[in-house]
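Sanity check

After download, print the first record. It should look like this:
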Amino acid sequence: MNRKFQQRRTFFKNCAHLALLGSGASAVNGKMNLIGSALATQSQYANLKDYKALVCIFLYGGSDSFNLFIPSNSAHFQDYQSSRGRLALKEESLLEDKWNNIKFHENLVDINHLYNSGDLAVVRNVGNLIQPVSRQQYQQNPELIPAELFAHNHQQEQVQKSWSSQPTGLVGSGWGGRMADLLMDANSEATLPPCFSVNNANFFQSGNRSTPLSINATRGPQLMSYLDVQASTSNAARDATMSKIIQLRSSHAMEQFHAKAFTSARDSSRALSSVIESSPDLGPTQADNKLADQLRMIAKLISGREQLGMKRQIFFAGMGGWDTHDNQTPRFNTLTQQLNAALAQFDRDIKQLGVKNEVTTFTTSDFGRTLTINGDGSDHGWGGHYLVMGGAVNGGKLYGDWPNYSVGSEDDIGHEGRVIPTLSLNEYGAALGGWMGLSNSDLLDIFPDLNNFNNEWRSGFGLFSS
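Expected structure tokens:
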């Protein structure tokens, strides 16, 4: 089969899914991957017996994590206050951890509690890197730096694909999708793919083998009205007639493929609707909190893991509004309140479902922001801090290193407080992938740029309990 036909085949497949599952549940797919991959032939995960789910929360816009998580060390804190100017949070307003290692924004009450209880960790100064770089290398060796480093669209794509040494257009899959390609075999009894998005299409979940499904966060999958057999007897008759039509034999390749795609999409939509309808009552959700709605839908989908035959699942949620160039303080207050409430609700949900140790949630973003103030906000930066939450997390700890918070320091690319990351997204993702059960050799396939870093990622730098 030639490449042109394969591309047309994939295009029609995704169009069929998109049309059939409707606005509530649609297949999403990134660009065709033009790079050969060993990920399509692996089967060593077919016998996994336990259940694990990875939940990505993407903070769109570039989160100012320097005002989410603040160092307690007095020298670091003084540099933080000096560099941030009017953006610096007052020390008396901050929440301390019980070991006096880190301070949290005053609105992160529940996140602070999860950290103190050992269910949440903070990973410091993470960013999009091809290899470790110094200030001098940044200034003198542009080939070592990811392309279009401070542009939202390019960085969202690169962060979610995590193969920045390659031209973005040649990388069609995301690192979540490349994980799913391997872990599909763990879900041997499942008819659905491992990846579900509750925040529309994304680069993160597009795979070479697997095609993610997008679920409406509030309504779930919407069945085609004229084929909803529960709605009326006439619909049942239409559905029976449609089934007979698509079962007709055909020698035409596209007709065969359309029939298969239609049947798969219809059955998938019904299976998901059944799971959501039968999910346990998890109580009220947070009002006017889109992230909380997304995480509640993820909890409902997790509740149906056995019904769907799932052993491994990868979920994607998103939260916009983090591009705080101006009016940062009031906007940041709203964002932190919503993030804290959504994560607290999701933590309660997964505990109620009895899967606290089987679900790991992590945050990431386009990039961090500048230490310096930009009018009454901050500008696009590079390195930033993220959180990882779950019962399997070796929580109550900090991973990675605090950067030098002085503007113009060795950790600044220039004189605006754009901090050079010391931990790559590849290493961050590899630690999460290792917890999902992926082998080190497969993690090197998923994150080819890992070869440019030291071997601490092989042990997940201690992020998870053994």
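If your output differs, re-run the checksum step. Summary of this record's structure: Residues 1-37 have pLDDT under 50 and may be disordered.
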